[in-house]
């Protein structure tokens, strides 16, 4: 996707916010092939935040981000979708690991349909089980299958996520899993991260119960402090539904984030 795509994808809930909350949209660093379904909804060019999925590749995006913050910041908060969540979540966890006494670079973060690469957690010293790796690979394949179903895309558009395609990651209340058993969030023991090593700023985690990649969203939620964390299931897939009730709910979560941020001036995200 690109910055214009992000403008369009978030318009339905941003429209419900007042003018004190301003947004800046940025492109990824590298030209990239889009996910198979993206061209049906958004025009090129398309970008990614890194090439490859190794810690070294991810840290390249962190170097750019540090320069961006030094040049144009500070920003009160960040709102991310999909791979963007991985960029900021990993940036915050590395910051916490290497600069635990310095203030976080943002006051709040809103993650939509995204998690953090397991390779980053391993680079930070966490033990990642084979089960967690299996879930990761399995859900990537499921998402790929969903986004290559041209007939469903053309017939149903964003509503295709409600189709009957097999998705055995489904469960009655996936959000409850992270609350009840943080030692096994789709194979990941998130209790390896102490409260001091977790992302400590207020966070919002928005995921879709029909998103094959929702395990990654829930794992990330468990790497953030529960007392300043909100979790919301928008009921859709790997996207941002534009239904009125979803837009109102997300706008409400943005307002909550604003209240959690320090100061009373306009919020810049």
TrEMBL record:
One of its GO terms (cellular component) is cytoplasm. It comes from the Eukaryota. The keyword Hydrolase applies. Residues 10-249 form the Serine hydrolase domain. Keywords: Hydrolase. One of its GO terms (biological process) is secondary metabolic process. One of its GO terms (molecular function) is hydrolase activity. Gene3D superfamilies: alpha/beta hydrolase. This is Serine hydrolase domain-containing protein.
């Amino acid at each position: 996707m690109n910055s214009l795509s992000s403008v369009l994808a978030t318009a339905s809930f941003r429209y419900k916010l007042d003018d004190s909350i301003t947004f800046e949209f940025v492109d990824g660093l590298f030209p990239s092939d889009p996910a198979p379904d993206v061209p049906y909804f958004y025009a090129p060019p398309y970008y990614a935040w890194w090439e490859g999925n190794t810690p070294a590749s991810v840290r390249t995006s962190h170097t750019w981000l540090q320069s961006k913050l030094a040049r144009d910041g500070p920003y009160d908060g960040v709102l991310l979708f999909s791979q963007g969540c991985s960029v900021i979540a990993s940036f915050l966890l590395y910051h916490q690991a290497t600069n635990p006494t310095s203030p976080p670079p943002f006051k709040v973060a809103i993650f939509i349909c995204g998690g953090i690469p397991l390779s980053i957690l391993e680079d930070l010293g966490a033990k990642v089980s084979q089960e967690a790796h299996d879930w990761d690979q399995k859900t990537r394949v499921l998402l790929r299958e969903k986004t290559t179903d041209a007939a469903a895309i053309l017939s149903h558009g964003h509503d295709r996520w409600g189709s009957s395609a097999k998705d055995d990651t489904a469960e009655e209340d996936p959000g409850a899993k992270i609350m009840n058993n943080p030692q096994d969030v789709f194979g990941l023991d998130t209790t390896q991260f102490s409260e001091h090593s977790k992302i400590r700023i207020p966070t919002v985690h928005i995921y879709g119960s029909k998103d094959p990649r929702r395990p990654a969203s829930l794992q990330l939620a468990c790497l953030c402090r529960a007392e300043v964390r909100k979790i919301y299931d928008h009921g859709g897939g790997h996207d941002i539904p534009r239904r009125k009730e979803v837009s109102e709910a997300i706008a409400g979560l943005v307002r909550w984030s604003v209240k959690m941020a320090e100061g009373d001036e306009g919020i810049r995200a």
